[in-house]
Amino acid sequence: MTADPLSQVFAALADPTRRDMVARLCAGDATVGELAAPYDVSLQAVSKHLKVLEGAGLVTRGRDAQRRPVHLEAEVFDLMTKWIERYRREAEARYQRLDAVLAELNDETDGNDRSEQGETA
Amino acid sequence: MTADPLSQVFAALADPTRRDMVARLCAGDATVGELAAPYDVSLQAVSKHLKVLEGAGLVTRGRDAQRRPVHLEAEVFDLMTKWIERYRREAEARYQRLDAVLAELNDETDGNDRSEQGETA
DNA sequence: ATCGTGTTCAACCGATCGGTTGAACACGAG
DNA sequence: CTCGTGTTCAACCGATCGGTTGAACACGAT
What we know:
Chain A is elongated, with a radius of gyration of 22 Å. In chain A, helix 1 runs antiparallel to helix 4. By secondary structure, the first copy, chain A, is mainly alpha-helical. Chain A contains 5 helices and 2 strands. Chain A has 2 domains: 5-73, Winged helix-like DNA-binding domain superfamily/Winged helix DNA-binding domain (Arc Repressor Mutant, subunit A, Orthogonal Bundle); 76-107. Chain A binds chain B through residues 3-4, 6-7, 10-11, 13-17, 19-20, 22-28, 38-40, 72-74, 77-78, 80-81, 83-85, 87-88, 90-92, 94-95, 117, 119-121, and chain B through 3-4, 6-7, 10-11, 13-16, 19-20, 22-28, 72-74, 77-78, 80-81, 83-85, 87-88, 90-92, 94-95, 112-121. The first copy, chain A, binds a DNA duplex through helix 4.
């Protein structure tokens, strides 16, 4: 049930409604009712979505009388960004290395290429 | 069936096995068999995972005799990065604005609501 | 033509997902 | 206290997911 954090964040954002909620929470905190307004679904459904976002650490809930204002947490984004950037850069680097290799094949002078790659489980 | 691209990418990466495949594909193209080796699951399961990644545009398949080498596409990462960065920055900006707001504190008028929303399928 | 390897298709299974409805809880207002 | 609003819990439903197995297809080698 408790999936790894990265999976939870990705899964949470895999839903358009949830992504839109995050987008709107950027403008400021909101209550369940306020968040639910635009999406003709039940409040319970929105509450469930929030639980997913909360589980992923993307939002936190406050307390204001009987209201539970929802607050966006920017921190968790970094987790994703780190993962993405790491592999995107590597992939791009490899891609560019390809040009170098091709150029080298053309020149056919000498070989001083060190291709390293990191593998982490 | 055809969800929006962003949802597909996020969903594809929400699975640890699929994320690991992407990580390993950074080192270079691979066949289904090679990819499957570390994960004691059936080749068919890996093939399914690949189909999800392909559907999300994260990988493409080549052709080499009876083999179908898998190639990582770095481009799609940008789609995510853009989305993430946009809202992360906004959220952080808002967070820092909080100090200013607290200092000012009595004239909180709202004015701008920048939230794009599209499909509410 | 036959065999073997690599890959995919198809049907099925249990678990989870996004949604519903109905009842309950929390708490301020009258 | 009672009422009303905001929110959550619980049970249920159809669809999708990640996995399986078994059969089929694609193509090189013999």
